[in-house]
Amino acid sequence: MRWTVALLATVLALVGIAGCGEDGAEPGAPKGATLVLDFVPNAVHSGIYAALSRGYYRDEDVDLMVQPPGESTDAPKLLGAGKVEFAILDIHDLGIARERGIDLVGVAPLVQRPLAAVLARADGPVHRPRQMEGHRVGVTGLPSDEAVVASEVEGDGGDPAQVDEVTIGFNAISALAAGKVDAATGFWNAEGVALRSQGVPIRTFKVDEFGAPPYPELILTTSQQMLEDDPDLVEEVVAATERGYAFAERDPDAALQALLAANPELERAEQRAQLQALLPILRPEPFDSAVLEAWAAWDLRHGLLEKPLDVEQAFHQGG
Questions:
Q1: Angle at 271 between CA 267 and CA 128, to 5 degrees
Q2: Does residue 66 contact residue 35 with C-beta atoms inside 8 Å?
Q3: For 133, which DSSP code?
Q4: Residue of 160, 90, 89, 92 lying closest to 299 (CA atoms)
Q5: Residues 110-166: pLDDT tens digits?
Q6: How many CB atoms lie within 10 A of CB 285?
Q7: Three-state SS for 254?
Q8: Element (H, E) at 287
Q9: Dihedral-angle region of residue 101 (phi above 0 means left; psi in -120 to 50 means alpha; beta otherwise)
Q10: How far, in Å, CA of 297 to CA of 319, rounded?
């Protein structure tokens, strides 16, 4: 009897081993993949969480894990080293990573326009970008902020060298609310919405209204190696993500609920206001090559890139 039981156990074990793939996964099981966000979860990620909650990734046979960035997270390096499969990157970071020899490829835009802006107190002296001359303007210290200020002042006929830039880190909200600066760089969909909700009167100068092309700010990104090794996985994640953003555009309340259900620490009113501001640019459309070329030239002109970027290599148009 014991011999029979032992034999049966051996047969079952062998069957189990034979039934698994080389990586130990069951045949037909969804492919595992990790997506690192660009920032803590917020309304701009609503399409991703909608796709998760509605099973769009599962429909594509993908088991996607979404990972917020940690303090030490360097998404471009993680992608380049094959530690994760996907990440959301600011378009400037994608270009800089490629310039540093990390072969990353943008595979889908999350938003269709820049989110960067200069925010000025409406009760202050800055009524238009060129009036930043001679006034204190808060910047985070990132080179992209300097590019935004320079582009806007130049685009409005002013001299960026006359702007008194003050490094304030990521404290645009408190600095503007307290009147420590007359204007500050920030995202119009985040800091701009937060300031208005706090009753701080502001003027918003979007960078694509003053000198910059209408580039897509946030990009779903993978590595060139992943694109070559598993193009089906890339296509599946892109398809599910685009489907999620199409749903968010169609039913923002349900998409918001998906975001909040996965991240209960978020404030509903704040995220609802951000999502409403974002809706006009959440359309899941393909890359526009002409816009990308104009963006690469803008980054080069403002010193964010040191040499011309090969847009065809940096962005995958699908197909």
A1: 125
A2: yes
A3: B
A4: 92
A5: 999 999 999 999 999 999 999 999 999 999 999 999 999 999 999 999 999 999 999
A6: 13
A7: helix
A8: none
A9: left
A10: 26
Helices (H) and strands (E) in the chain, counts: 14, 10
Question: Which segments of the chain does DSSP mark as H helices, in order?
Answer: 2-19, 46-53, 56-59, 75-80, 91-99, 143-155, 172-177, 191-197, 224-229, 231-250, 252-262, 268-278, 289-301, 311-314
Report the distance separating Cα 101 and Cα 302, nearest Å: 20
3-state secondary structure of 83: coil
Domains of the chain: 31-112+215-314 (3.40.190.10), 116-209 (3.40.190.10)
What type of residue sits at position 307?
A: K
Residue 71 φ/ψ, nearest 5 degrees = -60, -35
pTM above 0.90, yes or no: no
300 φ/ψ sector (left φ>0, alpha ψ -120 to 50, else beta)? alpha
Quickly tell me which residue has 């600066």 as its tokens. 181
d(CA 196, CA 200): 5
Q: Which two tokens stand for residue 286?
A: 């393909």
Contact status, residue 109 vs residue 252, Cβ threshold 8 Å: no
Report residue 165 as tokens: 């830039």
Query: Hey, what amino acid is at 256?
Result: L
Name the token pair of 78. 């993680």
What's the pLDDT tens digit per position in 10-53? 333 333 433 443 344 556 688 999 999 999 999 999 999 999 99
Asked if 307 and 300 count as a contact pair (C-beta separation under 8 A), the reply is yes
